[in-house]
Amino acid sequence: MATCIDLFAGCGGLSLGLARAGFTPAFAVEEHKDAFETYRTNLLDHAARRRWPAWLPIGPINIWRLLDEHHGDLASLAGTIDLVGGGPPCQGFSTNGRRDRGDPRNRLIDAHLEVVSLVQPQFVLIENVRGFASMPHEDGGTFPDYVSQRLKDLAYDSWHEIVLASDFGVPQTRPRFILVAARKESLPGIDPFSRLRTSHRSFLAKRGLGPGPTTTRQAIGDLEVSLGGSVPDPEWGSQGFLAARYAEPREPNAFVRLMRAGARECPSDMRLARHRKAASGRMEEIIATCLPGRVLTAADRKRLGIAKRTTTLLDADAPSPTISTLPDDLVHYSEPRTMTVREHARLQSFPDWFRFSGPYTAGGLERRLACPRYTQVANAVPPLLAEAIGELLLGLLRDSEPEDSLPRLGHAAAQIC
C-alpha cells in the first residue's frame, strides 16, 4: 500500500486525485475550518479515520503548530510514508499579486520542507502557480533554485516543470509549477516529466477523453439553465435563491459521464447568483459583442461601464482560463450570469458527488482570511491532474523499490485499474 501525506490540503483536490491513482492518504494538514470540513465530508470515511494517526486530532491545524506540537510524532513516521505532497498557498507567488518576496506566506515552503526532513518520504511533490518558477528568493536565485538546493541537502534529486492542466483532461488551461523529488539516486536515468508527457495520451484514452482538450461547453453544457431550467435552491431557497436544475443530458460526453459517475442525487452548489437587471443587461451585451476567452479590453470596459479589469467571457469551444476565487471574474458563454460553484468545480474536474462546505463568498475584513466555497474550488489542485501525477509517482515508486519490497506495492497497483 503506497501512502501519502497531503500538506496545505485545502478542500482535498490533491488527496482525491492521489487516492484515485492508488495512493492511501495517511492524513492531511489544512488550517481553514471550512476547507477542512469539505475535506472531512468527502474524503474521511470510516477507513480513512482509522488510518489517521492517534496523535493528530481530526480537524483544522496550522502547519507551524503541527511542527511545534508533533515534531517527534512526525519523525516517528520516517521510512513509512511514500509521498509528502502539497501546494503551499500561492498568493505570494502569483503574477496577479504583488509578488512580495517578504510575504510571510512564502515561508510556508520552509514548513513543507521541514516536514519532508522529518518524515523522509520516498517522494516529494510540490504544486504551485506558474509564478513560483520565476519568483526571486531572498537568498538569491529563484524559489525553485532554493527548494532544489534544500532538497539536495536532504538527499533528494529533484525535477520541475510547468504543466498545463488541460493536457490531462481538465477543462481549464491552468499552467502549474510541479516539482517532483525522489530519494537520491533512486531513479537513475529517469526524467519524471518525460514520462508524464509520454503518458498523457494513454491517461486521457483510459477515461474516454482527448485527444484534444476538454472544452468549457463539454464540461458544463449539461448544466445550462436554458436546458434544465431552475428550481428553488435546497440550501438558500427560503432566501429567494434559485439553483440550476440537474437535468439528465440526452447524449452525455465522456467528461460529463466522468463527472456524474457516483452522483446518487442532485449535487450541491448549483445556486445561481441573483443579478440586478442592469448587471444582467451588461452581461448580455458582453456575450453579444465581446471576444470570448480573453479579458475584456479597455475599450470594451469603457463602453460597458465596467471598472473591473479581470472580467472574461468564457469561450464555449476552448478550455476555460484559470479560474479565480472571485465568482464575477467569469461570464457564462451563453447565459447572462456568473458561474455557479458547481460549474467552477466542473472546470476544476471535481466530480458531482463532491460537496463543498461553508459560505459561498466572503467580503469586507473577512475576505483575506476566509476560505469560502469559490475560494476552496479555485485554490484546489485539479483532481484529474493530481490523478495523472499520482499514476506517474506510483510507477516511479515501483521503479525505485528493491525487488524484495515490490509486494508492498501490489495493493496500490491494483487500485489503479
Provide a descriptive summary of the structure in words.
The protein has 417 residues and is α/β, with parallel strands linked by helices. It folds into 2 domains: 3-209 and 381-416, 3-Layer(aba) Sandwich (Rossmann fold), CATH 3.40.50; 216-354, DNA Methylase, Chain A, domain 2. 36% of the residues lie in helices and 12% in strands. The strands form 3 sheets. Strands 2-1-3-4-6-5 form a 6-stranded mixed β-sheet, with helices on both faces. A two-stranded antiparallel sheet has the order 7-8. A two-stranded parallel sheet has the order 9-10. Helix 8 (192-206) crosses helix 16 and helix 14 (341-348) packs parallel to helix 15. InterPro entries: C5-Methyltransferase, C5_DNA_meth_AS, C5_MeTfrase, SAM-dependent_MTases_sf. It comes from Aurantimonas marianensis. It catalyses: a 2'-deoxycytidine in DNA + S-adenosyl-L-methionine = a 5-methyl-2'-deoxycytidine in DNA + S-adenosyl-L-homocysteine + H(+).
